[in-house]
Amino acid sequence: MENEDDDPIIQEIDVFLAKSLAEKLYLFQYPIRPLSMTYDRVTHLSAKIKPKQQKVEVDVAINTVSPNYCRSKGEQIALNVDGACGDETSTFSTKLMDKQTFSSIQAASNTSRYAAAIFRKGELHVTPLHGLLQMRPSFSYLDKADTKHREREAANEAAGDSSQDEVEDDVKQVTVRFSRPESEQARQRRVQSYEFLQKKQAEESWVHLHYYNIKDSRTELERQYLLCQNTNTTENTELMKSPSEYLEMLMPPCVEEETEKPVSPSNVLSMAQLRTLPLGDQIKILMKNVKVIPFANLMGLMAAGTESIAVMRCIQQVAMLVQGNWVVKSDVVYPKESSSPHSGVSAEVLCRGRDFVMWKFTQDRWVVRKEVATVTKLCQEDVKDFLEHMSVPRVNKGWEFMLPYDEDFVKKHPDVVQRQTMLWKGIQSKLEKVFSLSKEDITPKKSEVSSAQPKVIPGDQLVNIARKKAKEDHAQLEMNLKRKKEQSKLGSSSLTVLADVHIKEEPLSDDEAMDTSTCESINNGLVNGIHMDESSRDSVNGLITKGERELVSQELKEFVTAIFSKQYVLTMRELKRLFNLHLAGLPPGHILFSGIPDKMLQETVLSAGCKQILVPFPPQSTATPEEQKVFALWSCGDAFDKLRQALLELFSKGHRMRRNHIQTQLSQEFGDGLSKQQLDKVLKDCCVCYGGMWYLKGTVQS
């Protein structure tokens, strides 16, 4: 605004809208050709267009006498494409590759914002573009050579089979199948398929064109149509608008294009689009994708501020409780109008079979596929689909439920567990009538009853038990050493070795766990919902082997490195949320599902080159001490490391700052070498602006 007087208007130019070529004007681009090498002087042999699809093909001659042209290669290509005998359908009539075909693709589907302009005699004439096309070399002749090669092979095979014509053909059974009605989702996938688009393009016939050189008289005549034919300003009132109307024409309001969005695959889920939907639809789509999930992980995928009561109300409408975890309902996976892709049976039959599998998992952690197929009378492929939704196969044992028993959820929500138990009793009565189940099938064995509700010892409790036992051993050791010292009366000359027992907060081994009185009551068949035998007791309460622990650490470190290279600064709460999102995208049975404690995640962050920033939160902050932990990538190897580190150290004195204060402090350290672009870069990496103040990411208190 201050420099507005220093920028006077030098010249005013009249702008005219030419419409003579508005529906016929195309702009051709040659992205693989340099600007200095145009095709103006190259002979154009033919041209054709499909107007509706805006598809153009142009044949351009190749200079076969150029020293850069390899004649032997040209003859070989022509021989491969057309064969030894030439006819009217030959691509290269001279038995030499003497031409090249250029095919177009649309550079922009909406060209309403583009125009071609000519400046002449102080006037600017603008013509809207009808199409914006990029011309690239086409190698369709190679497809023709491949087709000829297959035809020759088929002819040779037919000649070899002709000697067997005397043998009578066997009578073959013909199976007649009727195609079922196409669903709307299947129709959308078919319309978006490559085969459908190719077929649609082939339906429109080519319109042959005649090419005129840039210096041809006809070209000069057509170029005159780029000028507005009526330049009388008194009669041409189309652009005579008021300032507000003209401004609205230049900057029209944003209107969302009503284009049909392609159907995303079932295994692709955009969390940004998902959170625009109502909470019930969010949970339904999420459960349809993940199939099985603990309630704690589900809350981690919800937006910040979502109430657990609302989530609990919605999850019960689309999922059932199995071993403390939520499994999506069968009617959500198989809607009414759907059918099996393997056997073609109806959705109702599939739902009954899947409900039977879910009910079996409420009785035991293991299910045998053969038994399910015998009861449900469904094909092996359908039964395998049911089991893959909620379990993983184990060699010589069967299918084990995918997740461990969630004891915490069962203890916190007894009312929900009771309600789900009543629902399962109703489903059980229906299954008895449908599949004619016997009492032996319904009543689980004693081992199954004990395994249906496995006893889980939390890791904190095991640590406390072990720590208490270590203190008792320590006290006993000190007492023995003191007694021995008194008896020997060696005084200061005696050397006493006192063994300190250092207990780390890590999972205990099997022997240590079995020494406690609490662990003795664990069922021998199930520990935390996992079957174990005497030969493979290498996992108690999520304990994994040394090799698996190294693999978990490697996977976790890769996740932390990748996330901090993008975010730079994260709070512990945001890091856990992103980790839950990462888990939701992993395949079932991944090594990270073994259970990652917060301490292990924090140690991985610190070992990955990050530091904890001690941000002084305000006293009225409602964030917990765990949520107030802020971690930052201290060094990433770029030119902004020192500037970023200085910025992070400033926030150790206060949780919010103004931009001018930050700029003053950093300028004192880096001098005049600090530019606005550098400051903007580090602020964008590490901070967010809220109410005119800058905060570290994740520390803004609403």
From TrEMBL:
Name of this protein: DNA-directed RNA polymerase III subunit RPC5
What does the UniProt keyword field contain?
DNA-directed RNA polymerase, Transcription
GO BP term, pick one = tRNA transcription by RNA polymerase III
Q: Where is the DNA-directed RNA polymerase III subunit RPC5 C-terminal domain?
A: 446-702
From which organism does this entry originate? Pelobates cultripes
Q: Which GO terms describe its cellular component?
A: RNA polymerase III complex
Q: Does the keyword Transcription apply?
A: yes
Q: What are the start and end residues of every segment in region (Disordered)?
A: 145-172
UniProt feature, compositional bias: Basic and acidic residues: 145-155
